[in-house]
Amino acid sequence: MNLIPHEIALGEVLMPPLLVAGALGVIAAIGTVHLLNRYRLSRHFASPPLVFFALTAIYTVIIGTFFIRI
Amino acid sequence: MIPAKAKEPFKTALAMVIAYGIALAMDWDKPYWAGFAVAFCSLSTIGQSFNKAAMRMFGTLVAVVVALLLIGLFPQERWLFMAALSLYVGLCTYLATGPKRQYFWLISGFVCVIICMSAGPDPVNAFDIVVLRAEETGLGILAYSLVTALLWPVSNRKDFFAVTGELASGQRQFCRAGLKHGKASDPVQALALKGQLIQAQTRFQQLLAAAESDTREVWEMRRYWRLYKEQMTKLTEMIGRSSQNLAELEASQTPHLLSNLEPLLDELDKRFAGIEKMLAGEEPEDHPNDIELVQDTAGLQALSHFEQAEVVVFRDRLQKLDQLSRTQFETVQAIGGFGEQAAATAPRSLLPTLQWPDPDRMLAVVRVMLTMLIAYLALIYVDSIPGGNSFVTMAGVFGMIVASTPMISLRMIFIPLIMSVIFACLVYIYILPHLSGFLSLGSLLFIVTFAICYLLSDPKQALGRTLALAMFVSIASIDNQQTYSFMVVATNMLMFPILFLLLTFTAYFPVNLRQEKSFLRLLERYFRSCDGLLSGMPRDAQQTETGYERLRKAFHLREISSIPTKLGGWAKFLDTKALPGTDAQNVQALLSRLQDLAGRISELIEARSSLRNQYLINELGDDAMDLRQNLQAAFELLGTAPVDVGRESYRTRRDELIKRLEERIRETLDRSTEEQVGREDGERFYHLLGAYRGVAESVVGYTATAGAIDWAPWHEERF
Fold first, then answer.
1. Which of A19, A46, A48 sits opposite B719 (nearest CB)?
2. Engineering a disulfide at A70: which of A64, B45, B335, B544 sits with its beta carbon 3.0 to 4.6 angstroms away?
3. Following DSSP, what letter does each residue of B343-402 receive, concatenated?
4. From chain B, which residues contact A within 8 Å (Cβ)?
5. Helix%, strand%, coil% for chain A, nearest 5
6. Is 80 exceeded by the pLDDT of residue B352?
7. Beta-carbon separation of B718 and A48 below 8 A
8. A18 in contact with B at a CB cutoff of 8 Å?
9. Does the beta-carbon distance from A49 to B509 stay under 8 Å?
10. Which of A26, A43, A53 faces B717 most closely, judged by CB atoms?
11. d(CA B20, CA B31)
């Protein structure tokens, strides 16, 4: 984790990195659940909504650790 | 010549321009509130619009009073303030999901949130803000009402009288098809006609409310039209029950023993023909004649007791059909001015009856309150959350809208909403700064409003159209002192995805609102209520019901009568791609079976409560209890697994119980005296037997229909 506070700049709009990582994490989770639904793998989960939120958190941490560097 | 499809968008656009023009000319703050009123009032006919406009105005007035009260009661007490506001919004959500004045309560709830969150942090100006809100809303409503009344006015009159004609003709056809006997009978056609009739009745109900606002002749005779609506529902149900009865008689090869059935059916047909003519404005050829049903008493004595029960019940239903059709004829005579006007409605109690709360409405309340609470916590504890107070405002507004229509998936709302947010942001950044003067601004407002209303003119897109217009006016934030800031764009682009994540969370917690899961949950509740009603039937004839038992029975009766309608709402939004082996027609057939079963159970409860002969109850109580318990066991199974009550094994067990009960009845009646079992007691007893048999047959019919659906995918978990 990068300990120096910094922002992500999109043009002249500055955004906190956690927001960007979070947004990408949500998008990745949506894509994953779409595939899980399509191939009927979702039936193996007891509570798919919890899995969705868990996937969001996991992807956010992965993207934040290795790509965006929150 | 303007095409028909463009007329309504033209009127909405013109009303929007007028509302903004007046608000800006008067130098009122926040003219977009007038724009909101126009956006939310734009429906297709005058009556519906006037109705909605009146509800919006009164809802706003009530909301401003409540908002001022809350702000005055809880200054500097943010938690109490939020708790009280959430409770009020919860109450409005409960009432907005009820049968009456839904729009009034919806507006009252979310206008209160809007005012509280804009005036609450600034209590010094609270009164000015609420007065402004009331003024702007009134302006928007007035502008839209005047435009729709003067420019290409559309009323409900034509649609209303078209649907009444359809109903009268539908009832006549249903009666003919349902009461055909022998080789001519066609139960499939009768069921299909019943389904069409029920849909027409729903349309009639909606059009009646609107026609009362915009059609003078309907307004003048409104009490008779409302009576006609009630009579029509009862008559349709009675035709359905009689038809079912006749089908069961034929299936068990039991003769109906009515020598003048054909003359009765001809008389009923003439009455329905007369009703059709009167509704078309013509005098009927004939007036109702009295027909007394004649039954072969000797033939009746030769039948077994269950067969006697079936025949007696069929005769009584035909008598009720005769009475209801005559009353309906007289009501239509009064409406058309072809006869004397008798009393229109039965007196109603002014006070609402005490009932247990509806579980689905309570779920909507919990959902809205949870959404608002989480939004409020985010506002307080998350530093610089996008939108600030507006985040809580939008959480309340959208929370109420999605809670009152839980079957609509959030994806359906999110996509048009985000597209309109993006479009509004582009207009805000690239077009608005170049405009000066009302001529150019008014042209922009007209073009954008016209385009949105024209592209989303399909009735199914009504919610999307309203939200798109609302987002445009909100983001454009047109004002006399116009300012432009990228923060408006950035805030809206960030706020709505976060808001929808919150709404998605409450769509799954505490209860999963996926369409097929909600359908299964309602089905389980339905059968639990069926079980509850049967278990609540008293053993002792003299036992009086306690208050708790009355409430419990009323609750379960309401559940079984309302759940099929709720299931119909959810069925329209089922994801058929995820449910292979499920056909929409089979689902509709299932709902018809549930409605039929609900009717049968209500009849059974009514028949049991009218039986007061303790001698009969004591003698036959154990065997009747076995039959009751058999039904209860079936309901318990059906609640958890829709088709696990195996049709053949259930029918066999039920036939055994009926045979045993039949023998016990024969023994009891053979040895009983006139003092022990009178004639009226005997008839009531046959009604009860017929009702039990009807419920059992209905369960068999339900399992056959449920067997046509593959339920396994319904139980699968999915995202």
1. A48
2. A64
3. --S----SSPPP-PPPHHHHHHHHHHHHHHHHHHHHHHHSTT-TTTHHHHHHHHHHHHHH
4. 486, 490, 494, 497, 501, 505, 508-509, 512, 578, 716-719
5. 65, 10, 25
6. no
7. yes
8. no
9. yes
10. A43
11. 6
CA torsion angle for B583, B586, B588, B593 (degrees, to 10)?
-160
Closest CA to B395 of B419, B378, B412: B378
Q: Which tokens hold the place of A21?
A: 């990582």
Is there a contact between A13 and B486 if contact means CB atoms under 8 Å apart? yes
Shortest Cα distance, chain B CAs vs residue A65, angstroms? 22
Residue B639: partners with Cβ closer than 8 Å, 6 or more residues away: B523, B524, B525, B526, B527, B528, B531
pLDDT digits (tens, 9 = 90+) for B178-206: 887 766 677 777 777 887 887 788 888 87
Q: What are B277-303's pLDDT values in tens digits?
A: 888 888 887 788 877 777 777 887 787
Are B274 and B285 in contact by the 8 Å Cβ rule? The answer is yes
Average pLDDT, chain B: 84
Residue with tokens 């009568």: B561
What number of other Cβ atoms are within 10 A of residue B659's Cβ?
Answer: 12
Alpha helices in B512-572 (DSSP H): 515-535, 547-571
Amino acid symbol at A55: L
Q: Closest by alpha carbon to B276, among B333, B222, B224?
A: B333
Coil vs helix vs strand at B644: coil
Smallest CA–CA distance from B508 into chain A, residue:
A49
Q: Please report residues of A whose CB lies closer than 8 A to that of B717.
A: 42-48
Selection from B208, B40, B162 nearest residue B111 by Cα: B40
Taking contacts as CB-CB distances below 8 angstroms, the residues of chain A near B486 are 13
Alpha-carbon span B410 to A33, nearest angstrom: 16
Nearest 5°: CA angle at B146, between B144 and B149?
105
Backbone angles phi, psi at B476, to 5 degrees: -60, -30
| Whole-model pTM over 0.80 | yes
Task: Locate the domains of chain B by residue range.
Answer: 4-154+407-487, 159-336, 515-715
Its CATH class, for the domain covering B515-715, is mainly alpha
Å between B483 CA and nearest CA of chain A: 19
| Burial tier of A39 (Cβ tally within 10 Å: 0-12, 13-18, 19+) | exposed
Largest CA distance in chain B: 99
> Over 90: is that where the pLDDT of B439 sits?
yes
Chain B interface includes A43 (CB < 8 A): yes
User: B661, B623 in Cβ contact below 8 A?
Assistant: yes
CB proximity list for B231: less than 8 A, separation 6 or greater: B324, B327, B328, B331
CB contact under 8 A, A47 and B718: no
B607 within 8 A of B684, measured Cβ to Cβ: yes
Beta bridge partners of A10: A13
Q: Which residue of A has its CA nearest to B577?
A: A38
Across the interface, of B494, B508, B718, the residue whose CB is closest to A37 is B718
Judging contacts by C-beta atoms under 8 Å, the chain A residues touching residue B501 are 26
Chain A residues lying within 8 Å of B498, measured CB to CB: none
Sequence-distant (≥ 6) Cβ neighbours of residue B26 within 8 angstroms: none
